[in-house]
Design a protein that fits this description.
The protein has 195 residues and is an all-alpha fold. 55% of the residues lie in helices and 0% in strands. α4 packs parallel to α8. 35% of the residues are buried.
């Protein structure tokens, strides 16, 4: 037995719905099934988590590209090699030019106001959420509705926890994906290693 649970492969899963979700992960989502494959050990929870992720980013101001900027900031902050390497395929090209503004010190000049605030929120949740001030929430309220602020908080909170899930497993991209299958923990260089 391996010391850490290994991601499940679609062909090794009996449940048709779980196999379907894993196959979708190979060509959609991140173009890699390792993250979903790790969660597939708990099929019922896995289905609920996927459903939750599918619920995010449907509003006018909270779209998938904004959430992706938040996701990669959380990954960099936690030094999660898997999460900082893979990209949400749907918005990879749109987000790529903004990555330099997200990694390291967040560059307010290179991001829209909403992007800057959302990425700052993700960073704060990753480092010390006790430091959020009423003034920061007032700024969020100028750019987002109350519902959108809650969506950003929920998304970033899930990402913080799931980053730590990936780190604990030292999750690696699959051999079948376009990503390298030997990312190093903790993350040294928060850049995707594939174009």
């Amino acid at each position: 037995m391996l010391p850490r649970p290994e991601p499940r492969d679609p062909e090794d899963v009996d449940d048709e719905r779980i196999r379907e979700l894993l196959e979708e992960a190979e060509t959609g989502w991140y173009g890699d099934s390792a993250f979903f494959g790790a969660m597939a050990h708990c099929p019922e929870l896995f289905e609920h988590i996927v459903a939750a992720f599918e619920s995010f980013g449907r509003g006018a101001n909270v779209d998938t590209a904004l959430l992706e900027l938040m996701r990669i900031k959380v990954a960099e902050t936690h030094q999660c090699a898997y999460c900082a390497t893979v990209r949400t395929l749907e918005v990879r090209e749109a987000v790529a030019p903004k990555e330099d503004a997200v990694f390291g010190d967040v560059d307010e000049d290179e991001l829209s106001r909403r992007e800057y605030l959302a990425v700052s929120l993700a960073e704060g949740l990753s480092t010390d959420p006790h430091r959020f001030s009423d003034d920061f929430f007032a700024e969020l309220g100028e750019a987002f509705t109350e519902q959108e602020v809650v969506e950003l908080l929920l998304f970033a909170s899930l990402e913080v926890g799931l980053d730590r899930f990936c780190i604990a497993l030292e999750l690696q991209p699959t051999d079948e994906s376009a990503y390298p299958d030997d990312v190093d923990y903790p993350l040294e260089n928060p850049r995707p290693k594939t174009s």
